[in-house]
Fold each of these.
Amino acid sequence: MTLLLFLEQVLNGLQSGVMLFLTAAGLTLVFGVMGLINLAHGSLYMIGAFAAAAIAAATGSFTLAIIAALTAAAAAGALVEMVVIRRLYTRDHLDQVLATFALILIFSEATRWVFGSFPLYLDIPDALSGSVRLPGGIEYPRYRLALIAVGLTLAAGLFFLISRTRLGIQIRAGESDREMIAALGVNISKLYTLVFALGAALAGFAGALVGAIQSVQVGMGEPVLILAFVVIVIGGIGSIKGALVGAVLVGLTDTLGGVLLPEALRLFMAPSDAAAVGSALASMLIYLLMAVVLIWRPHGLYGMRA
Amino acid sequence: MISEKLLNGALIAGLLLVVLHAHLTDAPFTITLATKVAILAVAGVGLNIALGLGGLVSLGHAAFFGIGGYAMGILASHAQSYVPLMQSPVLIEGTKSMPVIWLVALLASALAALLIGALSLRTSGVYFIMITLAFAQMFYYFAISWPAYGGEDGLSIYVRNGFPGLNTLDPIQYFLVCFGVLVLALLVSFRLRTSPFGLALNAARQSTARVQAIGQNPFRLRLTAFVISGAITGLAGALFADLNRFVSPTMFSWQTSGEIMVFVILGGVGRVMGPLAGAALFILLEHLLGGVSDYWHIYLGALLLGVVLFARGGLVGVLTEGRSGDD
């Protein structure tokens, strides 16, 4: 394995990490502020991707597709919050798990009903297709590089939002004492809807961006949701910083493990065995990473006691 | 409203009557459906020990269900191809004998539950839910990428495994085998509730600090419950694989975890017969609604949402109006 190939894989890992962050950030924010575990977050990711694919097919514009993804996911998020989720804040986690599991069933089947079971495809815009030559001579796809940039920019924006703006202060206050900020005149239920819609928009945005490299299909959200859970367990619930660190760690471990592990096993195994065993073990790596973090820090790298 | 005891008796009698009627009118498909109900109920009984008694919201019981399934698939496929499982240091051959397969399924899933439980019980609440779900997903991906036993395509077993003295290929006889296991699992679950262990576990669910104060170790109580729970669900996995004569990574999927939980909830958490009521309702809905619409999951989702939001206590709870519940 050459150094160039290795660096390329590091970039791939970073790219999948920042996209994972967008999904995990909403999830951790919703848990931190409302104390709600939302399994249907993956459905919002899927809704974003489908909205983008449908609008791109109708108009041919990638920009419009992205706007559609953001709008559709945020609207679906706000609607679901007002109709269902709102009733779950005071319930225990079991009720939240079941109700949001029911939402997955409804969203997935409704999407299958409207769009059918076949995957849709979303094309990369012309301006971002092709590849660029990076310093050191790596040819890297322009689109993936753009994803890294967009993801990091959004992460920075989110940090700014949480730590510097009025909304961010309200969100952090909501995390620590809900009654107190309600008493201070903040409209809690509006704040909750807003936070939920924000998380949904981030997930839908990630779904649309990733949908252009993978296919857009029913059930695409749940593997991402479970990965986002791993990210949150590693990073610590409620921590945006933890979500970013966890997401990049998971992205890098997953990508590099898939490439390096078979290579390493080839040193003392037949190549075909090494490929099989390596890929099987690589699929377990991120969960082993999670297990190690759990043993070392049961509440995640940046988490407080839940 | 009726008493829970009467309802429990009616459920068992109802299942037997349906099968008897199907047997007399020669409707093997109905018997197969009833067998599925019995097996899924066993899986639910397993989860209910962790969920209802221990308060452990495990969203990863597909891991144990799948391990039980693969225990059957691996042993039977080696017996089928006459290739030993292991030659050195000891010769281990495959088997087509159900009791042996069950024992392996129980042990393997208990071991997995011990490992997963020891790690995930270090945390609680929402962490526990996410971690159990993640570990089940690990098994799912492992089963997909491990080519030796079919990978993504799964494993087919041509002839159902044998039980001494019975012809398991006869639907009614296999139903009786599964029904017997269900009755045993229900008895275990019932005995556990009233045993000193079950009482301590239930107490730990309600107040960890108090249980600690009287000298019990909540972690050990929960881990024991999780292992028993995983082992029973693993046994159900072996039975399920034998019913279909097929195992695939789907048994490990998060949907399977969710569905096992749905059986328990539809029936009523922490109620001995809840999983049977829930599994029966689930299969009935799948059969009835599946005939009406290809998109029957929408109705299932709406029903589940309704139960969670408005009918806490599930089917058994609604019919007995909350009598003799846990809380």
Amino acid sequence: MLLESIKMALSSLMANKMRALLTMLGIIVGIASVITIVSLGEGGKNEVLGQFEQIGASTVIIQVRSSQAQAGDYINQNDVDAIRTRIDSVKHVTAPLQSIGHASTEMGRRRIYLSGIDPDFNEFSPIEIVYGRLFTEIEYLDAFPVVIIDRAGAQALFGRENIIGERLTVESSGRLLRATVVGVCESVATQFSAFASSFGGDFDESRGMPFFVYSPFTTAGTIIESNNRFSSINVMAVEPERVDEAGASVIRLLEMRRGNSERSVYRSQNLASILDQINNVINIMTWFISTVAGISLVVGGIGVMNIMLVSVTERTREIGIRKAIGATNTDILLQFMTESVILTLFGGLLGILAGLGLAFGISAAAESLGVAQITPILSWQAVVIAVAFSTAVGLFFGIYPARKAAHLHPIDALRHQ
Amino acid sequence: MTKMTKILFRAKNEEKKNKAGEENSEQSVNPNPVIALRDVWKTYRTGAVQLTALRGISVQIFRGEFTAIMGPSGSGKSTMMNILGCLDQMDSGSYFLNDTDISNLSQNQLAFIRNQEIGFVFQSFNLLTKITLQENVELPLVYAGLGRRERAKRAAEALEAVGLLSWARHRPNEVSGGQIQRAAIARAIVMRPALLMADEPTGNLDSRTSLDIMEVFSQLNKNGSTIVLITHEKDIASFANRIVRVEDGEIVFDSFGRDAPGPGKNH
């Protein structure tokens, strides 16, 4: 009987295609918006997770809260050395100097992102050398004028990639440095930008992605105006389980050295806590959109109920005929319930497709605008919930019209014109 | 109605049909009436207005009879047809249809009786317009829970009986009024009901087609169908072999056992 009901419902819906589609619209919009936000959220989470995997689960970022900090609170190279030598749970620590500057050759002058790195930097964010090599110990110690530049930068400044031994001029805050290229590395734009912004990096993405130039921190220190002050450093714990302990120890040490523990100037962030924050934001967004979508589903459901009531009135005579030839109240109830559930279920399925399409559209637009790189992910849980919800809407809002149809008196129904 | 009761009903029905088959072959007559109405009253109330449509109707109709119920409009013949057809319930009195007491059945049980025991032919045809004639004829079989193959077979038989087999795949709007009414008759007989009810079946047809349709009924009656025909036209009623006349909710004339020919005379 259910199979027959489905057949009848389909043929009756097919007879009014446009009406069925318009009725489904509320459900389509509701489901589509939830699917869009959930799949973008999942995709975004995944992307961020991927980026942070570069930093690793053992890494903790120690930041100076600028709102609380006084001039003497910033972290200096002595602190970094103390952390490296005096805390057992710390394996590596790095405090890169970072600055926006320019590099020039005969071919032109380009904006660069200049990082003064220490030997530990490579442990946090490996520089993938394509030509040449990393810096040597003596280059770090004696502040050799050497740089590593990324592929894209080499291409832009020299017109080729293998430029080992070539010279260029690096400038930052008006100071110049004539340097020799000792290495060319892979361009790692996205993961670096995540890394950089986790350091509190401040380069302006709207002016286009700059090229990346690295030099020993000692060398960079001669042109980057830092006054030996870091607002953020990266610490790697000896193992992921001890990442919280490492963060706490570093903060305790810094507060002891400064005697500023009562102002809580420093804070530590690790992968888990950053992920927590991101999850929080995504969850709030998801709940907000879901609430709006819930309203849309209710409105859509009322639309379904409305059109089903119209349908019951239009088909009163048909109901009478069916009852005269032996349809029970249950048969009629089932027929109309099936119809409303098919309406909302089909609307839900269309909504999933539309939502997925919209998510991919948004992600493509975001990528072409250079805002973000997110591949939407549709989890099976989201599909199941969407299907269950649209079915529930059909059942709930279908009951009243179907009961009305089922309880029509056969004689009155047959007399209806 | 539960599945169990359905099965019980069906079993009982089969048994009856088998019995009927034996009796036909022996040319004997079932002593029990198909319809037994006793002192049936029905009053309609709309607001302050009360209208007593049936005032103590008693009648018995036997297997194989072709009965015409006649009467002017407002006489109560439509009410009688609704009660006989199990579409409506009476206020008091009793009604046995094929030995089943109808008086106290629920809505769903009445639906089952309509499906199994009664075939309707209406003045305004009442076919579903969006499906083919064959699908219309199959509809009672759908509600009886029959499988697709069995439905197709029995629908074809019924359409054949009314001479419409070649039109089976057409929709009602593609055929003539007479053909639509033939399809409606096919739908009414497809469940092999105990009783065929026709309510002014020729009211929407021209006189030529009306005669055709009445010929179909006559033929079905000759083949053993029990038919109750509601009409106000004498020439249509003349196809029946028993006339019951209703006025003001009472039976004022019944040709049963009098001049009319046919099986009714034997009682």
Amino acid sequence: MDILGNLTLGFLTATTPNNLLFCLLGCLLGTLIGVLPGLGPTATIALLLPITFYLEPVTALIMLAGIYYGSQYGGSTTAILVRIPGESASVVTCLDGHEMARQGRAGAALAVAALSSLFAGCIATVAIAALGPPLAMIALEFGPAEYVSLMVLGLISAVVLAHGSVLKAIMMIFVGLLLGLVGIDVNSGEQRFTFGLPELFEGIGFVTLAMGLFGLAEIIGNLEETAGKGRVTAALSRLWPTREDVRRSAPAAVRGTLLGTALGILPGGGSTLSAFAAYALEKKVSRDPGQFGHGAVEGVAGPEAANNAASQSCFIPMMSLGIPPSAIMALMIGALTIHGITPGPQVMTNHPELFWGMVASMWIGNLILVVLNLPLIGLWVRILNVPYAFLFPAILVFCCIGAFSVNNSAFEVILMAGFGVFGYVLRKLGCEPAPLLLGFVLGPMLEENFRRAMLLAYGDATVFVTRPISAGLLLAALAVLLLIVAPSFRRAREELRE
Amino acid sequence: MARLVSAPIDLATGILLAGLGTAALWIGWDWPAGSLAEMQAGFFPRLLAAALVLGGLALIGRSVLTNGEPMPRISWRPVLGVTAAVIAFALTLERLGLVIAILTVVVIGSTAGAGLRPLPLLLLWLVLTVLCGVIFVWGVGLPIQLAPF
């Protein structure tokens, strides 16, 4: 296939003044939405869907895509500054990004996040252009059994995130999986853990849970540790990353990009899973894993690159197979069908300008995002200079409105308060909330695919090891588990001896 | 110093997890589990709940065998202050509107910390009200009333 010709067509389509304008508009809107807690990209795209009817299909798609990755970028900003993950993929950025901000290196963290994302975007764009169509075929090889094994691998690698006890981290995953089941079971219509409350029929909102466990628990913890005064963040040392930061984060960004591009192709949780996996990978290859969780710049660069690469490569299954990997992608397919275009393998041949125009616009969108955001970094870090006595009630108000906007109901706000207390208790008990959130996100998908895999195999559980791809993934999961358990097992034995 | 339970944090975590698992088992007692080939609504929750109970028991066991840090103190002021502020927001928003809901969050919330003097508090309330009114009500168009009338 003529990649160069296709890319040229793409760039010609994406750089028409009209398309550029809507790309810019989408990125701008997306960043704003991402920075406001609660209001996710799904809601915004849903709101804007009717407007896109008046646009050209390419333009509509370019703008929606801009909102999508713009909001992901904005989500990282709040994760770094105030430790509130805007959406599931930026949970990982909270860990080391916010720690960097506390050490007065918020500017460096934001810049590394932006530049790693741009780097990932450049590579992923080329990768999509070169490998898109054949890669999409790999995704077709994935049956339910493979998905289950992949998710097991992802969940196991989330354990690496925790610095404390392995057993507690695994238990947090189970708590998350259980929380993910709340609501009406899609297969039988049975109400599970709803206590008859109609507000819980559709399950617990991710935003509600994340803002409670991270945002509120963080505020309570901060106030507690500083006797109500609030943590004084170290004075801003410098706005830009040091040479050392760049040297350490460049290889991390490369690894994250590769991982993200590969995992993003698989429908379902691609970008979240890849961010978690990238963090685990960085911690494993690092010569000094103890730094992670205490402001390691690799812990920002790797996951941010992976997240961005995955959110681009997840367009591959959508455009080529018509499989929406997430709710947002499903909405984008909706936008296409409004214009009478059915996504599927024929899109690339019938509407080449649509596919390649979007690929090119992703790269342009990334560039726009960096150009938009680098000058804003100076403004963002100034938020950290606001005295905590003013800052934390403001964060509380934003969290409350964010939780309310999930379903336009006060119930979500009360639920968030409950999760805030729960998060504080977990913190006190040395349990980390990040594995819990990954379990929560993957829970429904894991159950669904497990159920399907067993149905197809007539209840024969060996299917997970007899199918080669699935067996390989499970072996990888086992290897990761052994890597984690071995040192901590040794430590526990030493403790016993003492 | 010899204590009966040498790792009280592990013990508390174990009790919490085993308790959660037991509660989940109890709530889902009537759900049909089906078989492995045809899983019903009860299968997966029961699997997870059983894992939680086992893990919780393992932690309880471990708490007797290993040494750990003493139980941390709980500081009630920030916990209660933050929680009360959020719940107050939930209760006031739909009845009294955004302006008053923000006031309750700021007033109750600031008691969680060192507290604010009346004038800075008033200022914070004004800034937040204008900001949230413009962004969320006017800009995003959330169905929120500003005032009770």
